[in-house]
Amino acid sequence: xxxxRWLRTPAGTAPRISFGADYxxxxxxxxxxxxxxxxxxxxxxxxxxxxxxxxAKLQPGPDTWDFDWLDELIDLLHANGIGVDLATATASPPPxxxxxxxxxxxxxxxxxxxxxxxxxxxxxxxxxxxEHALAIVTKLAERYGSHPGVVAWHVNNELGCHNAYDYSxxxxxxxxxxxxxxxxxxxxxxxxxxxxxWSQAYSAxxxxxxxxxxxxxPNPTQQLDFLxxxxxxLIDHLVAERExxxxxxxxxxxxxxxxxxxxxxxADFAKMAGEIDFVSNDHYVVxxxxxxxxxxxxxxxxxxxxxxxxxxxxxxxxxxQPINRPxxxxxxxxxxxxxxxxxADAVCYFQWRQSVAGAEKFHSAMVPHGGEDTRVFRxxxxxxxILQDLGDVVxxxxxxxxxxxxxxxxxxxxxxxxxxxxxxxxxRREAFDWWTALTNAGIRxxxxxxxxxxxxxxxxxxxxxxxxxxxxxxxxxxxxxxxGHLVTxxxxxxxxxxxxxxxxxxxxxxxxxxxxxxxxxxxLWEGEQVALSNGTTGTLWSEPVDVTAPDVEVLVRxxxxxxxxxxVTRRPVGSGSAAxxxxxxxxxxxxxxxxxxxxxxGVASELPEAIRGSVELVVREGANGRFEFLINRTDDEVxxxxxxxxxxxxxxxxxxxxxxxx
Length: 662
Prior knowledge:
Belongs to the glycosyl hydrolase 42 family. The chain is an alpha/beta fold. The protein contains 17 helices and 29 strands. The strands form six sheets. A nine-stranded parallel sheet has the order 5-4-3-2-1-9-8-7-6. The two termini are 29 Å apart.
């Protein structure tokens, strides 16, 4: 996202936070459309995503096209002041295509061919699929590329959600091309993959396959490269569609919806963000409001803190969890405004009208099965009014914090490969624990990709930074020597970009910077704990840490452990410092350690002590000023004090959000 371009807006229209949903009118009789428009205007809707899953309707057969319904729909929406985020309709191919060309269907690692009948049943590397997909993209761009009602292009949908990892022969051929471009020679690949182990040396690229089901652990660097390749294949498809859209309709911005939520890691969204005009994200609550806010902060980092588009979330219950409960009063508005706090300038849902048939008929929508006389729709209308009152916030950036969590996609994927010291390590969970503990302490925190310059951050936390290429190691060293305060954790600095161990003892690449050395890891059994000198406990991991530099300070020690001594250390370096945490502290343990780390970095909470932990503070700033979003994390009222409130008031209700000028 080098040049941030936002939704097109009609001349003379006041800036606003856009509001809307995925709209699927092709599921409904024509007479429902006019009712939809009436209700959209009542709710303050100004944008809808259209045609996401309409390929079969737009192209009923190989040589048959039907655009009349879409012509009428876009004209209707435009006449009523509702912009169209027009999808390229390529997310799910129609049955006629997979029947005529079953070779487009994905293949699993064990050789199973996945059938049509669900969605996203296509191979990212299939030349046959690509040909047909780009044909419909071209048709749409030629027909609607100059329509004033189209405010953005929406490429595909949730790229890779169900088809990220394809092990077909198409994938094998494309993987070989990708590898040859990456390594240049088979000798370079053999070195990178360490193929001297287990007699795996290749004599030609044609011998290489994706890491299909094998008799033993597949080569770890092969696995890692396949993850990288699979992400790049999705990006390549995105770029192929984008290039057609840019050529035919250069004035319309292009986006695609990420899935920054929970453990979803199939695509490198930080890299994908560089290929679109503005970042979009789909988020559904999986672990409560803190995970929602953490994911929104990650999305803001991918957007480089520029405004982004919340493409999908839910008004209430979803349909795909084991048990699907509705949101409680206030949560619909709070969840939406939390995303706005973290930079979203568009708030949209899946979907506008709740379906009567299909796999998602029990998924909530802006207009539920019960119609407009429902709590959900009344809350939707209320939210629409609130968003219109926040016009001054539009276009502002999410303000930089003093603290950053470095979130590294490479380390996430590589640290959780098989044949490691423990299979229980979860990279995102460790990062989330640090984010939660900082929020509990009333500290604003950014979550940034690993290539983000850290200059200006007083404290940077890089949890489980397993993958440490030379450039990243040197960047962190410069940050510390320049006055930054770095914290990293167990299983950090272990390997280079090829998943080769940094020799000399752990934590490898950061051993000299931290002034510590570890000979062996000591992961903990499930349920096992180690006692720590500050009264907390560690889980998951422990290490016998040897202090190797005389200026290292031991902040926390292990207790009652014959083989273990230093648990948390800190070393002054230049005008900064580098700290090491050798066990999983969890939110409580991090909370006990934070005062020492924050004081050492000169970081303090901006919130009054009485409301720290109860309220999350997020700040946006732009041409119209600086705005504080105060989000109630509790089920109790909170007194915020007096201020110039754009939204809410000094008494913040349970699960409420207030916005005030700073």
